[in-house]
Design brief:
By secondary structure, this protein is α/β, with parallel strands linked by helices. The protein has one domain. Helix content is 42%, strand content 14%. A four-stranded parallel sheet has the order 1-4-2-3, covered by helices on one side. The longest helix is centred in the middle third of the chain and has 13 residues. The protein is globular. It starts with a strand and ends with a helix. The mean pLDDT is 93. Pfam families: DUF488-N3i (PF22752). It comes from Ensifer adhaerens.
Length: 116
């Protein structure tokens, strides 16, 4: 299984495979052509409530991570759809936040790789 993450603002590369946007909101300032998104899975993103809670500074990264993992546990249809896409070939999960280490796409990647 080839699964990686990348900021949507980075240019498309030959090794990206299917580019899947996993943000609930479309990235600011990008056209659809610039983003080169093959599939937009809004339902894979943290809920609006969780995102707002975290960005308001009400919780820690670990609390956010645990709550997002619980959301993924409760969303088997979307998780299975993503797994099907990954089974077809390489997939790059696209996200828009600036932090390349602490973002929901990294959490999602870990979830997909460890929860079968």
């Amino acid at each position: 299984m080839q699964l990686k993450t990348k900021r949507v603002y980075e240019p498309k590369a030959d090794g990206d495979g299917m580019r899947v946007l996993v943000d609930r909101l479309w990235p600011r300032g990008l056209t659809k052509a610039e983003a080169a998104v093959d599939l937009w899975l809004k339902d894979m993103a943290p809920t609006t409530e969780l995102r707002r809670w975290f960005h308001a500074g009400e919780g820690t990264w670990e609390e956010f991570r645990e709550r997002y993992l619980a959301e993924l546990d409760g969303n088997p249809v979307a998780v299975d759809l993503l797994r099907q896409r990954i089974a077809e070939g390489p997939v790059t999960l696209l996200y828009s936040v600036k932090d390349e280490a602490r973002n929901h796409a990294e959490i999602l990647k870990g979830y997909i790789l460890t929860h079968r």
